[in-house]
Amino acid sequence: MRRRFHIEWVWVTALSSVLVIAALLGGWTRPADDLLYDAAMRAAPAEADPDILIVAIDEPSLAALGRWPWPRRLHAELLQRLADAGPQSVAMDLLLTEPSADDPALAEAMQRLGVRLPVQFLVPGRNGQAFERIDPVDALARRAAAIGHANTQIDADGTVRAAALCFCATEDSAPLPHLMALSGQAADCDAARRLRFAPPESFATISYVSVLRGEVPQALLAGRRVLIGMTAQGLGDRYPVPVSDGGNMPGVEINANIANAQLQDGWVHSLPRPLQIALALAPAWLLMLGFWRIRPRAASLLAIGLMLATLMLSTAALAANWWIAPGPALLGIALVYPLWGWRRLQATSDYMRSELARLENEESLPLTRSMAGDSDHVTRQAEQLAGAIAQLRDLKRLVGDALAGLPDPALVSDLAGRIVLTNAAATSAFGDGLLGAEVDGLLADIAEAAARKPVAAYLANPDSGHIEFEASDGRAFVLRRAAIVGADGQPRGRIDYLTDITVIAHARRERERVLQLLSHDMRAPQAAILALLATDGDTVDRARIARHARQTLTLADSFVDLARMQERGFDPEPVIAADLASEAADSLWPIAQQRGVQIRVIDESDCAFVAAERESLFRAIVNLIDNAVKYSPDSGTVTVQIERVSGQVRLSIRDQGKGINPEIMPHLFERFASENAGHAVKGIGLGLNYVAAVVQRHGGAIAAHNAADGGAAFELTLPLDDPD
Predict the structure, then answer these.
(1) What kind of fold does domain 570-721 have according to CATH?
(2) Which contiguous run of DSSP H or E holds residue 418?
(3) What is the pTM (predicted TM-score) of this model?
(4) Does domain 405-500 have CATH number 3.30.450.20?
(5) 651-692, pLDDT tens digit by residue?
């Protein structure tokens, strides 16, 4: 399918490019370009030069001086008036081809002022001539400062858009410059130059009769470039121009625009041919490129945007005196859009026909034929495709439901490693926002630091089957990765399935701890008792045997109580915290007496009550005081202080021993943590864990630290209970 589209795309692009270049070189779009030029001219007209002044033979002048033509003595008087004011130049846009008795006076006035006169060319000429040149009368031509042609360049549609700066009737004749050509400026006879007109009546204009009567101040005429010509409607010297809004512009005003272009270098230039071709092809090529990247609706908007951009570019270029004909570019867009739509539709139809035939031949997906007889071929194919999609959607729904029903997290990723499908278990386990995430990075982030390298190694080579790892939040998983392969045997993605074995992992660790307890901590005191009983002699060290037996009983009781607390609910009763602490201290008095350790109980709690399970909390306090006695030096003091603090009861137990090893401080309340403090007694590693479990069960907190003046201090806080 992709190869077919590439082929169609190439030949549509090539065909449209050839047609666009042919339209540009052959001028096929010239009429449309001229109309667009006119519209752009109205949007971006030229600015009128303030030095140009038109002396108009207008309706008021005809009313005051009579019907045209006037006696030439009036022209002589007008020129005398102008000469007194001192204009920069004067051009008479009047055909003075017939002799008159007033010619000597007019010639004298012309010589004084330096007036330019026009020559008219008739093409074709009269009597079968190729052209006919009509010059001013000889008397006036000899006294004129310059003679130039005043022919108006008219396009095929009758509109004036350009001017010829010189006219060469035949190859053998000498070129004649335009009446408005500036002195000393070379004339180009190769082609007419496009004009950028100023809006109608933009040039300063005064009436002929006003100048003749001396009604115009000389300051208004001094230094101006004066054009004398006809503007009255009935005199016939008017032509359609782009900015006239359907009307006509007098020839003298057209010549003023030519002079304006000469003075401001305002001629409209054309780009070099290669650049014209590139700009004409660019919109069609951009649209063809867009067909590969954007949707059909966006392609329609792109086509409209390119058309508007082409027109705006032409208008902006005209404002800078450059003309980019938009017709070929618009033609390219108009060709490309339907051509590509046709070929794409044909290619899509062929592809759907072949794919539907393949699907229909598969037993797993029989297609239901459309029964509609009033639709075209593509519509019938679309209906068959809709049926196939519906069945595939059902199949996807089945797969999705099966995936969603899995009890453990499943992550489906594409070939780029991005997650494209998950189930509810994955969302519950790892949170929202999984779609689009990088699956390898996600699994690495889930694993704890020590497990990240093994997990990454397994993901790189999942042939080993599965891997067990522990997550950073304490959960444990078994990870299995499998490849997803398409019907063509090519890989399509991967599925990662994580089985939560947290309960199994905890049970496994618990089993190891129990084995350690049975094999080491409970076995060691029993072995010591047997060793003492096997000692030769009649004297048996009963005290040591009793201590080892008590260790075994304490360990067994703590282990059993921990197990019971995990299985039964919390059933508290009001208990006076100070009384419970005193009873615990009294129960340890015989042991303390053996080493001369004094247990001081300081009650500042004002008989505060706590909601407690008396037996378990009593044993926890006994464990703390027992540890303090064990790690205190002989004849030392253990201080037990009970106080009421901010709605809580705080129980502090402090000894005078060497304190807690800083290395074991972070693990002090973990199960089986122990320390040899240099005494004869070694902790069994279960007592403080039991204490922490009891305190947590009672909604309290426990902390330990080394006092600044020596010894270890434990602080146990419990919520205050009001027995009323």
Answers:
(1) Heat Shock Protein 90 (3.30.565)
(2) none
(3) 0.53
(4) yes
(5) 999 998 888 888 888 878 775 545 443 333 344 455 787 788
